[in-house]
Amino acid sequence: MKEIFDKRYPVTSFFLLVTALVFLFMLVLTGLNFERADTLLQFGAMYGPIIRLFPEQIWRLFSAIFVHIGWEHFIVNMISLYFLGRQVEEIFGSKQFFLLYLLSGMMGNLFVFAFTPKVVAAGASTSLYGLFAAIIVLRYATRNPYIQQLGQSYLTLFVINIIGSVLIPGISLAGHIGGAVGGAFLAVIFPVKWERRMYSTSQRIGATVLFIALAVFLFYKGMSYV
């Protein structure tokens, strides 16, 4: 248990704990019905028609990150978060990793909202693809051999997983691509602990403006769906 909730990686441990608790509550409160669409929506899954009808439920862009559709979905994402989270939290620091994880997931869910508006979507994979993309982007901007090697490994895994997203039914390709796009922008916006001058101030400002503009565009695209 101490190895899972390591004090050196408090945010990774926090996200693991919160996601596990949400999954546990789903099991306890709904039993064998925890994979049903109504159960997923009750616990905060992403579903475009609900947000269009009740815009105040925009919080689903974040809550959906912590909801999972079945045991396999939950276990695979938690194992991925355990390893990816620690590596990325070490590079960006805990505070920036916290934002990177949530905002990548938000962007992924905005892609779902805009491009697959009638799909029920949930899971941490939107955020995880953001972590992949963030390190891949850094790989081309740093001279740090550790980040370069990690970025190359992530690129291979990213390509394999995107192919899987295309070939395997029931996987949200829009969410995965959106999470990756968000993570790529955020890699420029947030300085890493070891190389805070990797990108110039103007590059960071530009990436921030583009990230916000894209988020606003996707939200209005989703809201205008008929």
From TrEMBL:
SUPFAM superfamilies: Rhomboid-like. The chain crosses the membrane at residues 12-34, 61-85, 97-115, 121-141, 153-171, 177-194, 206-223. GO terms for molecular function: serine-type endopeptidase activity. This is Rhomboid protease GluP. InterPro entries: Peptidase_S54_rhomboid_dom, Rhomboid-like_sf, Rhomboid_protease_S54. Its EC number is 3.4.21.105. Residues 56-190 form the Peptidase S54 rhomboid domain. Belongs to the peptidase S54 family. One of its GO terms (biological process) is proteolysis. It is found in: Membrane. Pfam families: Rhomboid. Keywords: Hydrolase, Membrane, Protease, Transmembrane, Transmembrane helix. It is a multi-pass membrane protein. One of its GO terms (cellular component) is membrane.
